[in-house]
Amino acid sequence: MERQLISHLAHADHPIASPISEANLTRLLRRAKLASGARILDLGCGAAFWSVRLLELYGDATADGVDLSDAGFADARRMAAEAGVADRLTLHHGSATDFTSAEPYDLVLCVGATHAFGGLTPSMEAIGGLLAPGGLALVGEGFWERPPGREIEAEIGEYADLPGTVAQAESSGYHTVYAHVSERGEWYDYEWSWTGSLIDWALRHPGDDGDAAMAAALEHRKMWLDGYRDLLGFVTLLLRRG
């Protein structure tokens, strides 16, 4: 089973697709204080939950969502229609690294998708090429709360600590104007939802796909419970390009 489909199924009951509660997400998005007619770009949008919520909050904004997989696009269109914003959301099936636009954006999101650009620093540089002067970037990235063991870091990936993550994000001429550090409860809700939704799907779909989904869920759960639990943090930074 493709990794993108597994991720889509795992996020079925947690469409925010990051360790953030709906209340904290809304508070974070309101801090963007977007002007009338704002243009929004969501890189690695998945089911575009963040874009739909932004369009609900900012009534005359428009948004483009880009993702390498279109597994979440049907859900995105459904949510957008239910919210009454479908006419202001455009979805693009393709690589975020290849996306171009003739017009710049007032807000560019890249939440949990910096791997597409090869890390946080190159992501910020790529976002800068899509932003209008003085525009905002909303970037979600992992960081180590405490130094992990070598085995865990090799399995999960290389991250800085929180000060180092902020420094990387600001290294291309940005200034942090707000941020949210995911709380322990948000992490636990996210992880139990991710693994539980996938396990539930696997039990209801016996066969090769169900077996693959179950294996992915159990592998992920072990990696979390026995590995990065209470070690890996997540910060969502709102930055303005200076």
Description:
- GO terms for molecular function: methyltransferase activity.
- The protein has 242 residues and is of the alpha/beta class.
- The protein contains nine helices and seven strands; from the N terminus they run ααβαβαββαβααβααβ.
- The protein has a seven-stranded mixed beta sheet with strand order 3-2-1-4-5-7-6, with helices on both faces.
- It has one domain: Rossmann fold (3-Layer(aba) Sandwich).
- The chain is 43% helix and 23% strand.
CATH topology: Rossmann fold
SS class: alpha/beta
Uncertain ranges: none
Identify the CATH architecture: 3-Layer(aba) Sandwich
The outline comes out as globular
> What is the N-to-C order of secondary-structure elements (H for helix, E for strand)?
HHEHEHEEHEHHEHHE
- Biggest beta sheet attributes: 7 strands, mixed
Roughly what percent helix?
40-55%
Main sheet strand line-up = 3-2-1-4-5-7-6
Tally of strands: 7
- Radius of gyration over all CA atoms, rounded: 18 Å
Beta-strand percentage range: 15-25%
Span between N and C termini? 43 Å
Quickly count the domains. Answer: 1
> Kindly state the mean pLDDT as a whole number?
96
CATH class: Alpha Beta
What is the count of helical runs? 9
CATH superfamily: Vaccinia Virus protein VP39
InterPro entries: CFA/CMAS, Methyltransf_25
GO molecular function: methyltransferase activity
Keywords: Methyltransferase, Transferase
EC number: 2.1.1.-
Write the layout of secondary structure elements.
Elements: H1 3-10, H2 22-30, E1 39-43, H3 49-57, E2 62-67, H4 73-83, E3 89-93, E4 105-111, H5 120-128, E5 131-144, H6 150-156, H7 162-170, E6 174-181, H8 184-204, H9 208-228, E7 232-241
Parallel strand pairs: 1-2, 1-4, 2-3, 4-5
Antiparallel strand pairs: 5-7, 6-7
Helix pairs in contact: 1-8, 2-3, 8-9
